[in-house]
Design a protein that fits this description.
The complex is a heterodimer of chains A (341) and B (346). By secondary structure, chain A is of the alpha/beta class. Chain A has twelve helices and twelve strands. Chain B starts with 13 loop residues before the first helix and ends in a 7-residue tail after the last helix. With 346 residues, chain B is mostly helical. The interface between A and B is large, with 48 and 31 residues.
Chain lengths: 341, 346
């Protein structure tokens, strides 16, 4: 895949100084997203997924955050843009949809008017023309009878329809990159699948890049081409979806995979990851995952493992040797299958 | 490209149905309002006429109610007392007398003042304009002041301006109106001599004179509410600022000006409710302010009536006050439903 690199994040740090200490929400993160790909970012709550993307859009409060590194979007560093320049990028070239569609639309404005507003804040078109375009995109994302639904208020929409409306709103300017922050978490399972399918369809039809943020590897498995696993504001491993599902190289990913229920595994128990994610004020020394890691050994609590290709096929941040990882992953697999039988 | 169409709900004709719902709702509420007003009257009637110490409460051995003696003058004679009792139907059962009163009241006849023999309705109508002028003027001042300070404080959060305004607001709402009023009279009338207390003139007869006499009571009456409103508006603005839909507004690239407009739309809607109710309460008479500044309004009238045990006036002013509060509630609910599309009439 050699299509255009849309977004390139280089050594991003987002720190929030608080009276209790510095919250290291994102700590040295690098990745890139290309046109035509869906890039999945996986991690638990508080692993820095959302903060990374909000920072790209300039929606983190820069008064309270210390941000360093680079976020190159089509070659321009978003962190160096002025407020007004950044506003012109937001919603036009780079748009974002959020987790809770129930809360994301203004309850007092008609859905259609909110889309019209999104159109007219970047383009001087007549209200009438904007209205026509809004109805068109509402139809394109599967809202039935869009001329009527245009006039409805958000509370007259179901959760799935609101997320569709959000997607419609994010597409009005044919953006290059769509960031979807847990777009299906608040929805019913059946609706989740529809929304994921819609995002995938939109990606192909509009030829854009998508960043899909989720805590659910199952969601990623369906639609993403590349995956990055995050923990405590850092990348744990990153690679093509097939590689990561075939041979994950980080104990944290193993834990995530073990906690997904699977239909073949009838009768086996899900294995949770012991413990809780660390406080981002006191991130453990060395590897941030080591207190919860069943395979930790000597260097884990002292040296922070560099994020690099360690001979397993894709970059990761774990001190175990590639051979050990293959062995342990194979053992885990067989144990799990055995338990199922 | 249409994916998974979602079933539609009918929206045709909803609007006409909405108007019908609203009328039905208003009629239902108005009927309840009448019941409420009768209950209020019954309560006041019972307190001043029926309960022990009341004007119709005969103690043991008394043949005629105390009211008849009172109305008979300084040296009541039995024939006069008897005649008064007969003339005013004071010997009829209480419920009959109350029924007669309510019947007359709904025809606009609130009886006669014991002191001046003037029809109470007429007296109240004469005192309504000063009260309305006071209430509307003060409420406009506190609304502008409160919303202005609240919005600016929220937008300039944690700045010196914000902290200073909020401190002033705290001080403003801590000062009781009776104290503030007296201090104001002391300074502006006594020391500075730029205000003339008690020189009330009507708006229609002398607009400039009216303004000259009203500006100080307006300010005095507005200070406390302005303080409360500014704190409320600031709080609402900050609450709304962290809503997801405000983040959406930014994410879609709206200018900061438009984002603030989105914020105001949510933050100011509850202010409408509060304003309506406060204005309704005030239209029933601003007792302390009217008294201090000698404004001949409903509030001052009712205080005098209570001191004089002028029961028809007490009943009349109470009825007017209750009417305004109930009406304000209804108006506010109808307006709120128009402002918040999520609210339906049911």
């Amino acid at each position: 895949m050699a299509s255009e690199v849309l977004l390139e994040v280089k050594d991003l740090h987002v720190h929030f100084p608080t009276p209790d200490g510095v919250v290291k929400a994102v700590d040295g993160l690098s990745f890139q997203v290309r046109r035509g790909e869906t890039f999945g970012i996986v991690g638990e709550s508080g692993s820095g997924k959302s903060v990374t993307c909000l920072t790209a859009l300039g929606l983190t409060n820069l008064k309270t955050a210390n941000v360093s590194g680079e976020i190159l979007f089509k070659g321009r560093d978003l962190l160096k843009l002025g407020k007004e320049e950044l506003r012109k990028v937001r919603g036009k070239e780079l748009s974002m949809i959020f987790q809770d569609p129930f809360a994301c639309l203004h309850p007092f404005y008609r859905v259609g008017d909110q889309i019209v507003e999104a159109i007219r804040c970047h383009e001087s078109v007549s209200r009438q023309a904007a209205r026509g375009r809004a109805i068109e995109v509402l139809g394109a994302v599967g809202i039935p009878n869009p001329p009527d639904r245009f006039k409805d208020y958000p509370h007259q929409y179901s959760g799935g329809m609101r997320q569709r409306a959000m997607i419609a709103m994010s597409l009005v300017h044919n953006p290059d990159l769509l960031i979807a922050d847990e777009p299906t978490t608040a929805l019913d399972v059946t609706v989740q699948a529809q929304i994921l399918e819609l995002i995938d369809r939109v990606k192909n039809d509009f030829d854009i890049g998508v960043i899909l943020i989720t805590h659910d590897l199952g969601v990623i498995a369906d639609v993403a081409q590349n995956i990055m696993v995050m923990y405590a504001g850092r990348a744990m491993e990153r690679g093509a979806k097939g590689d990561i599902f075939a041979l994950p190289l980080h104990p944290y990913t193993w834990g995530l995979l073990d906690s997904i229920p699977h239909i073949d595994m009838k009768g086996s128990r899900l294995v949770p990851i012991e413990g809780a994610p660390p406080s981002l004020i006191n991130v453990p020394n060395g590897c941030p995952f080591h207190p919860r890691c069943p395979h930790r050994f000597d260097p884990c609590d002292k040296d922070r493992p560099a994020f690099e290709d360690r001979g397993g096929g894709h970059p990761n941040a774990c001190h175990l040797s590639a051979e050990d990882k293959k062995r342990i992953w194979a053992e885990r697999q067989s144990r799990r299958t055995k338990a199922a039988v | 490209m249409v994916l998974h169409p979602v079933p539609t709900r009918g929206t045709a004709g909803d609007r006409i149905e909405g108007v019908f719902d609203m009328l039905q709702y208003i009629i239902r509420r108005a009927m309840w309002a009448i019941v409420m007003l009768i209950l209020v009257l019954a309560l006041v009637f019972a307190i001043f006429y029926v309960l022990p110490g009341g004007a119709l409460h005969k103690s043991a051995g008394q043949k005629y109610p105390p009211l008849a003696y009172k109305l008979a003058g300084k040296h009541p004679t039995l024939p006069v007392v008897r005649a008064i009792t007969k003339k005013l139907d004071l010997d009829k059962p209480i419920y009959v007398q109350f029924g007669t009163y309510v019947g007359h009241a709904f025809q606009g006849d609130l009886g006669y003042s014991y002191q001046t023999q003037e029809p109470v309705t007429k007296a109240i109508l004469r005192r309504l304009p000063p009260t309305i002028g006071l209430a509307v003027g003060a409420s406009v001042i506190w609304l502008l002041l409160g919303c202005g300070i609240g919005i600016i404080s929220a937008l300039r959060r944690r700045t010196l301006l914000d902290r200073g305004s909020m401190m002033a607001a705290l001080a403003g709402l801590s000062i009781p109106t009776f104290f503030l009023g007296l201090v104001a009279v002391f300074f502006f009338d006594g020391r500075l001599g730029i205000y003339n207390t008690g020189a009330y003139v009507g708006l229609t007869s002398d607009p400039i004179g009216w303004f000259k006499v009203m500006w100080l009571p307006w300010l005095v009456l507005a200070i406390v509410s302005a303080a409360i409103y500014s704190r409320m508006v600031r709080g609402n603005m900050l609450d709304v600022a962290s809503e997801d839909y405000i983040r959406t507004a930014r994410a879609k690239g709206l200018t900061e000006r438009s984002v603030v407009r989105h914020q105001l739309r949510s933050a100011l809607t509850p202010v409408v409710t509060m304003y309506g109710l406060d204005l309704g309460i005030l239209l029933g008479g601003a007792i302390v302010t009217e008294h201090i500044f000698n404004i001949p309004g409903i509030g001052a009238f009712s205080v005098d009536a209570i001191t004089d045990e002028n029961i028809p006036v007490i009943l009349g002013t109470t009825l007017v006050a209750a009417f305004f509060i109930i009406a304000a509630n209804l108006v506010v609910d109808v307006i709120y439903a128009a402002l918040d599309p999520r609210v339906t009439y049911s």
